[in-house]
């Protein structure tokens, strides 16, 4: 735990406002290969978040009933969320740990009303549904949800927390300190870009995220196995950017996205490929406004 603690302290010193909740990370386990997080309260309070909420329109009756019954409004009460996956090819079950403000009893009652069965595991109230899916409340203000086997394994780890490997922990801390929405992925093999594919196991670790402010920026860092692999990935990115611009010239429907491509940057530093794309928040709003239905559906 000493290494992880030092990493998190270092990340916090870079940006005191952003630091991944260690109480959420501990539920992921050492076998987690892909991890992503959202500082939900920050995202909802950002200029783009407020704009997105204004585009949603009136909430549906079922959602309003849920809020009334539980006193829990995810838009207001969800603080931070971290998702874990074992990675690898194909669809794999995952796990979500979140910190929020909620009343366990009223929220649990709502889950039972939705058809979930309440029981206990490792001294924790759990709610199960077919799927198999499980929701648990292991600590005050924390909820863990996902595949039943993964949730039970996460509850078992409370007494013996397992560590992320050092490389993954470092990237999680850095990505989480710099972004409002962040991600870290390892062990991705056979990366495909349409018909183009990089060599097997060329990518060692991918990390990055999205920052929301007066400027919206997406940034990513890919650490490749060799410098040759890094150059190959950079060439693929440049090719995809060129193809996007060509398609934009032919298809006016995607023309608004061309302004984003104009700001895209891709550089290679040894075995590392850096990529970023940014746009003023007002320009991103215009993309949503140009497709109100699709934008609202994406936000939901």
Observed structural traits:
300 residues, alpha+beta, 2 domains, twelve-stranded antiparallel sheet, 13 helices, disordered C terminus
Provide an overview of this structure:
It is a single chain. The protein has 300 residues and is of the alpha+beta class. It has two domains: 32-156, no CATH class; 187-299, no CATH class. The chain is 42% helix and 29% strand. The chain has 13 helices and 14 strands. A hairpin with a 2-residue loop joins strand 4 (117-121) and strand 5 (124-129). The longest helix has 24 residues, at 227-250.
Spell out the blueprint of helices and strands.
Layout: H1 2-14, H2 22-25, E1 34-38, H3 40-45, H4 47-56, H5 61-70, H6 74-77, E2 78-85, E3 95-100, H7 104-113, E4 117-121, E5 124-129, E6 133-139, E7 142-147, H8 148-156, H9 166-178, E8 181-186, E9 192-193, E10 196-197, E11 203-211, E12 215-224, H10 227-250, H11 258-262, E13 265-269, E14 272-280, H12 281-290, H13 292-299
Antiparallel strand pairs: 1-2, 1-8, 2-3, 3-7, 4-5, 5-6, 6-7, 8-11, 9-10, 11-12, 12-14, 13-14
